[in-house]
Every structure is written in C-alpha cells, then in structure tokens.
Amino acid sequence: MTPLWIIVVPWIMAPWVYLFRRRSTIAALLSAGTSLAVAVICFLLSPDQTVWILGRGLLFDPWRRWLLLFLFAGAVLLFLYSWHLSQGWSFFPFLLVTLGLLAGSAMVDNFLLAVLLLELAGIILAFLIQGGPRADPRVAMGYLVPLIIAGSCLIFSTHLFDLVALYPEDLASVRLAMTTLTLGFGILLAVVPFHLFLPAVTQEAPPMVATFLLGFYQVVALSLMVGLLDRQPGLGSEAFDLLLVAGLITALGGGVFAFLERAPGRLLAYGAISDLGLILVGLGTASGVGVAGAMAHLINRSLAIALVAMSWGVISERYGGQRSVMPMGVARALPWATLGYILGGLTLAGFPLTGFATRWPIYLALLPHNPLYTFGLILGGLGIAWGYLRSLTPILGRGERPPGGREPVLVAMMIVALVGTSLLLGIYPDYLLEPLRNMVEGFSFVGG
Amino acid sequence: MLFSGEQLVWGLLFTAGLIAVVEEWRISLLALLIQYALVGFLLSGSLSPSLALAKIATGGMIFFILYPTAWRGRGKPPAKIASQERRFATSPPFRLVGSALIGLVAYGLLHQYPWEGVPTHLAFASNFLMAMGLWTVILGRGPFRMGLGLLTFQIGFELLFTAWERSLLVAGLLGLVNILLALAIPYLEAVGLARRGVER
User: Fold this and answer.
1) Domain count across chain A
2) CB pair distance less than 8 Å for A133 and B194
3) pTM of the model
4) CA torsion, points B163, B164, B169, B170, in degrees to nearest 10?
C-alpha cells in the first residue's frame, strides 16, 4: 500500500459525505469511518517510504507517521462529536477535504508546495468558521486576510532562501528572508502580536472548528516550521534565539490576555496562544529535553483544547445564553461537561497532574538560559488559570438555571475518555516523553 | 504585441486605483477582470502562452463567481453604516489621497528592496498592487470589498512570484488559491446580506 492513500481517501469520500450532509448520522459515521480507516493506514504502513508524483516526493517517515496518525485519530473524535451537536452543514465534507490537504502539506518534501497546500486548507476552513448565518462574516474575513498575507510571506521566503544559498554574502537577502519567514509563521501560528484575529475566530466559530484550527491546523503549520529548521541548518542560532524570545512574549502575552478574559471562546484562544508560546520556547532551547517537551506539550495542548471546546460546546448548545458568558448554575445538569471544562482549563494552565507534566521538561531546558524566563512561563500559566476560574464562576454558581437538557451519551463518553487521557498523561508523562525523546534526537538542530 | 510592458503596467496601476477608490460594484468588478487580463498579457512574454491564457481564464472565472453576489448586494448600504461612513474619513477624496500615498510607498520600496532578476516596471507594478490590495482591505467594510482587495494583493504577489517560479504545478495551485478565495467571498457576502436583511 502507498502513503498516497492518506491524501486521496478523504478526497474520494468527501463528495459522498456531501450528498448526505443533511443526514447527520450517515455523514458523521462515514466521515469518522474514513478518518479511522486513514489512521489505521498510517499505523500499518511501514515508515521511511517516499512516493514520487509529478517529480515531487511525498515522505512518510516516523515523524510524519505519528503526526498523521494524531491528525486523523483526532478527526474521528471531532466527527463523532458533530453527530449529535451540529457544527454547520458543511462541516463533514469540507473537513475531509481539509484533512487531505493537510496530509499533503505534512508529507510533501517541498516547502513551497507544503505552504500552498496549507493555504488552501486554511481557505476551506474559512467556510467552516462561518458555519452558518449566525456568525458575523467579518470574522471569517478577518481570518482570511492574515492567512493570505502569511501564505505570501512564506512563499516569498522560499525564493529568498534560494537567493541566500546562491549569494550567502548578500546580507539584505538574508535579512529579508528571515523577516518574511518570521512574519509568515508568526501570523500563521498567531504569535503575539500577530494573534489579534484568533480570539474572534474561536469565539464565533463552531467549537469543533475552533478545535481543529487550534489543535490540528496549527500543529501541521508548526511541523512545517520544525521541518524547515531541520532542513536548513544555515538558519543559525539567531533563529532559535528568535523562537525563544517570540515564545516568551507569546506565552506571557497570552497569559495576560487570558487573565482579563471571561468569554469562553476568547479564553480558549488566549490559553492556546500562551501554550503555543511555551512550545516555541521548548523548540528555541534546541535541546533534546526541551524539544521533546515541546512535542509532548503540543499533543497535550490539543487534547486540552478539544476537551474545553467539547465541554463549552455542550454547555452553550444545551443552555445557550450569551456567547460571551457561561450560563448560570448548569454544573449539576451537565456534570461531565463541567468536569471537562475544568480539567481542560487546568491542563492549558499547566497545573500539576495535568498540563504541568509536559511543561516541566521545557522549564528544565530553559533554566540554563535564564531562570527568570521560567518564571515568566509560570506566570503565563497562572493568567490562564485565573481566566478559567472567573469563567467557571457562573456555571458553578447557584443562580436560576435556564431551561435546557443533558449531555448526549456519546459526547459525555468522549469527554470522560479525554479527561482520562489527560490525567494519564499528567501522571505518567514518560509514556509520551520517552518515544518523543528518541524521535527528536533525529533532528539536525537538536543538541545535547 | 499590441501594448508595451510599461503601458500594461499603467493599466494595472489605474485598475488597482479604481478598485480602491470607486465603490460602484460594476466598475470594481470590471477593473478586477481587466487586471487579470493585463497580468496575463504582461506575463505572456516570459511565460508560455497557455499559462498566460490560464491566468486570464482564472480571472474570467473569478469574475463570474463574484458577479451574482455583487449584483444581489447592489443596493445602498444600510443608513447606519452610510452615516458612519460620511462621518468617517473614507470618502472618495480620502481614498484617492491615500491611494496616491500608497503609490509613493510602493515606489520607495522599489528602491529600498530591488527584486533580483525582475524588470523594474514589473517589480513596481507588483509592489503597487500588493500595497493597494491591502489598502482596499483596510478600507473595505464588508466581505465583498475586502475580498476585492485580497484578490488584488494576490495578483500583485503572483506577478512577482511568477517571474521567479515558473513551475506549472505551482501556477496551478496559486490559481486554485485565487478561485477558492473567490468562492469564499460571495459566500461570506451572502451571509452578510442575509444578516442585514434580518436586522432590517
């Protein structure tokens, strides 16, 4: 079997799913089944394969294998969740198309093509962000503008790096290449201060679309950056210093914004932004411990985002109210959703037994640089914790509860499963950290 | 060739200016179509004729994708927005002066960062289109106007990048980016129109 199926199968299934888009049971099961099948293909295929199409290589190595497995296994959860809680009529087929594009972007051995596929996937996500007539279309438009600018910057940088390779003494080209690359990834990953579009998107978009954007799309974008760092040793130590500084600013900035926020969607965005800063810091240390910690936290972060978004999605779907504030006193009616919201928030904030376990290696790797930096990261986490505490107050309160229903059984089961996985990772992080440590040793930029 | 490269560039500057300054949807959309045609002609010297023709065809497709929604939303903006606009500095003279300043910035950038291996007139047109595209996005108050700005930005970007990268696959993917973007714009504009209808 060829790795090409990983890209093609979702595209083949998308039109069929589109036909059944109004019948959520069929569409959800078809989509989830497709994702599961592709995840199984990823697991069964032997790594270290290259497929050639139109003269371009598609790589399937251990790193990409786990990335794609994570992507498609995660998508199964999103599809099953959307079975009972609608995320917009276009969610199932469009997400399948996006998954195929993201798989292509992750596998193609050419930075330019990878960026173009990522950009295409991002534009399709704009349809999903809109979701339906309820959301403000300016939000989706506000997402498209930075996406196109980021894509153009990254595409420019490919040419500029070609120039740098030809004329390494041309400092203007080096400077411009680094600037476009930084701008491109900075905007794409919503690094502070380029993050302004993201909170509005997560607040307005259906919860599973927000999860996909923060927890999966950004992961593929980040893997593209890691691949570039691996292939371009000429980027030098300045690139890692830049990552460290940008990560610190993002982690702290996200924490400060989260501290001031109460709206669940925006709070989720700031928490995710702050945690992404932490991951950038881990990569910036360029040490085995730091990079493995960053990768582990990337997985933990995605789980936490899914947990918070699923829980928030159930609460707002069942009890509605204002989208900016949680409804009053629903904890008793929706115990699993409340538990998921609390645990997801704690994981994003980096509390012991949850997110702290995957933060710890990054703190350790950062200590030799400057202990104050570690303090800054902890401060960012405290900001998120405070934000979640404030956001939780109405749910746990004893005010008059609006009329609503209970959690769908399947959704409650998924929340419980995610809570269990999160706790397991928090208590036994070595099950994740050890294999990741072995994997990142293969990166050319990873030191001792 | 019917027109020289410089004449085509002047045409591009004029159409980009029209999109930024004039709010009339028919003029803006026609200017966008002409822009794609001019880019096709401009690149026909360096690209294979079929690829240049494909760029013009992409422009034609985008025109027909955008036209129905633009026609649906042809009515005047709601009174609330219109009154805000009168007070706010987005009147045609402001747009015109702003566009002229953007042109100066694009010209200045040309001397600050001359693009390697790209003819000067082409580099200037590209800088100008990208800057005007962003300016139109900033001025735009809805998905349609903002979308026109984004497409103008993309045209400028492709003009420059095609001079460096002539791969058929890359050109095809860039065309696909344009078409998907053009599909997203009417979708978002239609939602905006529906919401406005509900609010009324």
Assistant:
1) 1
2) yes
3) 0.93
4) -90
- The amino acid present at A282, given as its one-letter code, is G
How far is Cα A334 from Cα B54, in angstroms, rounded to an integer?
56
A204 in a domain, yes or no? Answer: yes
| Number of A–B residue contacts, CB under 8 Å | 81
- Is the residue at A39 inside a domain? no
β-strand A49-53 against A56-60: which pairing, if any? antiparallel
* CA A120 from centroid of its chain's CA atoms: 17
At CA A179, angle to CA A155 and CA B145, rounded to 5?
60
Q: Is A422 within a domain?
A: yes
Handedness of CA B33, B37, B38, B40 (dihedral sign): positive
In sign, the C-alpha dihedral spanning A179, B109, B124, B118 is negative
The residue type of A184 is G
Q: What is the ipTM of this complex?
A: 0.91
Helices (H), A213-287: 218-231, 236-260, 264-284
Quick check: A137 and B113 CB within 8 A?
no
Low-confidence ranges of chain A (pLDDT < 70): 233-234, 321-323, 399-403, 448
Which pLDDT value is given to residue B129?
Answer: 94
Tell whether A42 is covered by a domain.
no
DSSP string, A301-365: HHHHHHHHHHHHHHHHHHH---TTSPPTT-TTT-HHHHHHHHHHHHHHHT-TTTTHHHHHHHHHH
Alpha carbons A342 and A310: distance in angstroms, whole number:
12
Q: Which domain holds residue A302?
A: 110-440
Distance between CA atoms of residues A382 and A388, nearest Å: 10
CB A412 within 8 A of CB A405: no
Q: How far apart are CA A64 and CA A409, in angstroms?
A: 34
Query: What's the sign of the alpha-carbon dihedral A27, A28, A33, A39?
Result: positive
A119 and B195: CB-CB below 8 Å?
Answer: no
A248-294, pLDDT tens digit by residue? Answer: 999 999 999 999 998 999 999 999 999 999 999 999 999 999 999 99
- Among B135, B188, B199, pick the best mutation site for testing chain A contact (most A Cβ within 10 A): B188
**C-alpha–C-alpha distance, residues A349 and A326, integer Å:** 19
